[in-house]
Design brief:
Order of helices and strands of chain A: HHHHEEHHHHHHHHHHH
Oligomer: homodimer
Low-confidence stretches of chain A: none
Shape of chain A: globular
CATH topology of chain A: Farnesyl Diphosphate Synthase
Distance between the termini of chain A: 20 Å
Number of strands of chain A: 2
Mean pLDDT of chain A: 94
CATH architecture of chain A: Orthogonal Bundle
Structural class of chain A: mainly alpha
Largest interface: A-B, 54 and 54 residues
Chain lengths: 291, 291
């Protein structure tokens, strides 16, 4: 059932984004760079989550397609910039050379910039949503992506690369760097499905727990994963002297904590009186996946 | 009169932006980096233009303050990224070390990213504007800033750094790199002042001419200007092997072309039946200024 849902919605999201990116043709190399990283794959977890929330509330998922597509563009932008030499300095991502390796640093920086900036237009011009919903979604996404969200989390992560940090700091970094876009997916789904503020705030807390579980899983895979399956190098955290959940809690402790956050999310989700089948399957995918 | 207008509105714009940036306090160094470049000065030409249009139509400039502030944040972002080693590799800007020189490349990249992303929230949450006007302004700004606008223009500029280009290509680059945000200032002012589509499109053409005049003036200053007054190195274009208007048209030809675009803008402006006093003075400032 989850597979059917993914197979239904991912091509729709990809079609919106590919058509949109192809229309950005002033500077052909820049367009190619954006399409390269967009097409490098990934499971489109965030847009699928957003649409699964709408579906769970029995609302029309077509109303969420452009917001979901926009979210994936913002995510793609963050991957391009995170891989830059001045940041994590990664050569491979999803089994392919990173953007700056192919297009050069200048174009990679500008491709990330464009993805951030142009993405908003997908929401701003979405005629299936009221202008009031559009400005709310844009404001939410701006908060979740910006200096008090994902980008701020990336800054904290980089600042703490060679520092010993405690669990609270690690949670703070991950809550923002990874968690905020996942939180946006859940909150946006509830907004588009016309839910009330109490439910929207519960969705935010679910997003927080799933975001942390997602990051712990990522840390575990960095130790246990198979490079061939992951499509990127493992043991990068060790190389970059990063404090991880595995380092602070041990491998078993990290797995236990991941499970605990997953269960908290599940309990909250089941309290909402919505159809949770697809969402629960998605949460399990996040926790169980090997890449 | 222009001075009085500038002295009235610039402190209002700066107050909005400084308060906003100070609230982005998750990662203190990131916040400092954003404030550093914002506070490095500049004449705030773009937001002043936007507000002068509103004033010229006899509308309430307070309705344009947050959009004007947002525009200056986007402009600040572009300066930080343009100065990066992978781009123009500049050490000084407005007489001060560039952002990456002070905060490091990673933080400079993220500061530029945040400014791009967070800026939109100033418009999205502006309760003095209708949600319909807000989404239109966001859509316009996204187009003018993104891959088919300012960022695309910067990409074309970098791609052509060591190439001989003709006047058409140079105009195309500048129209986007420098021109699009100036165009946005004029268009946004007309939207906020509730003008009709014919007038909005005339404003766009005025913006194009003023944008080109502005860039030609910049090229002239790179040859004729005084480093101490400009606050940045001169002869950078020569160093970076950039084709400029001065190179293609000669110094006198460039001055003539600058004047011609200025006069076209003025003729269009005077056809609109608005109060053009402040705007005309501003246009003259752009053409005559020595920095």
């Amino acid at each position: 059932m989850l597979d059917a849902f993914i197979n239904q919605v991912v091509p729709l999201i990809d079609e919106i984004n590919r058509t949109f990116l192809r229309s950005l043709d002033l500077a052909p190399k820049l367009k190619e760079a954006m399409l390269y990283s967009y097409n490098a794959g990934g499971k489109r977890i965030r847009p699928v989550l957003l649409l699964a929330v709408i579906e769970g509330f029995g609302a029309d998922i077509s109303k969420g397609l452009r917001t979901a597509a926009c979210l994936e563009l913002i995510h793609t932008s963050s991957l391009i910039h995170d891989d830059l030499p001045a940041m994590d300095n990664d050569d491979y991502r999803r089994g392919l050379p990173t953007n700056h390796k192919v297009f050069g640093e200048a174009t990679a920086i500008l491709a990330g910039d464009s993805l951030l900036v142009d993405a908003y237009r997908l929401i701003a011009t979405d005629e299936l949503l009221t202008p009031t919903d559009r400005v709310r979604l844009i404001s939410e996404l701006s908060t979740c992506s910006g200096a008090n969200g994902m980008i701020g989390g990336q800054e904290l992560d980089i600042e703490n690369e060679n520092t010993k940090i405690d669990l609270d700091t690690l949670v703070k970094i991950n809550k923002h760097k990874t968690g905020k876009l996942i939180e946006f997916a859940l909150v946006a789904g509830a907004i588009i499905a016309n839910q009330n503020e109490v439910i929207i705030e519960k969705m935010r807390r679910i997003g927080e727990h799933i975001g942390i579980a997602f990051q712990i899983k990522d840390d575990i895979l960095d130790v246990e994963g198979d490079k061939a399956i992951l499509g990127k190098n493992t043991l990068r955290d060790e190389k970059n002297h990063k404090t991880t959940y595995v380092k602070l809690l041990g491998l078993e402790g990290a797995k236990h904590s991941c499970q605990a956050h997953y269960e908290k999310a599940l309990t909250l989700l089941r309290s909402l009186g919505m159809n949770t089948a697809v969402l629960e399957a998605l949460f399990r995918l996040i926790i169980d996946s090997n890449k």
